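All the exercises in this workshop are built on plain-text protein records. A record pairs a protein's sequence with a compact description of its fold. Read left to right, the backbone structure tokens trace the chain's path through space. Once this layout is familiar, the rest of the handout is easier to follow. Here is such a record, shown just as it appears in the course material:
>
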Amino acid sequence: MLTTVNRLAKGTIVVMHEVTLLRAEVSALRKANKGLSKRRKVKKTRIRLGGSLTIQDARDLLDGKAVGEQLAQEERQNRSGAGGSRTKIQYCSVCGKPGHNTRTYKEAAESSDSSISNSVIAIS
């Protein structure tokens, strides 16, 4: 009988500890919710103090926000090294003209010479 009373007392103590912990957690959550609702109210009051918006003004604000988010996303992509979408124009290191490189320089020069000689008309 004594062991049953001891087990009951031990169980009661465990339940009391759990209740204490739950009360502390509820208190912390209520405090966080109160702070969050204050921040939300401040945002709404700021909008209210600015006056009423027409539908067009609201659409303009939303469009501006969307453009700002898109620019920020593109900026993040550019900073992350995903700039491979832009291709750099290659120039020949011998003549400095675009469209070919040093390896294909003679072929490009020969093809341009033949196109020039074909396009020149001699007038006598």
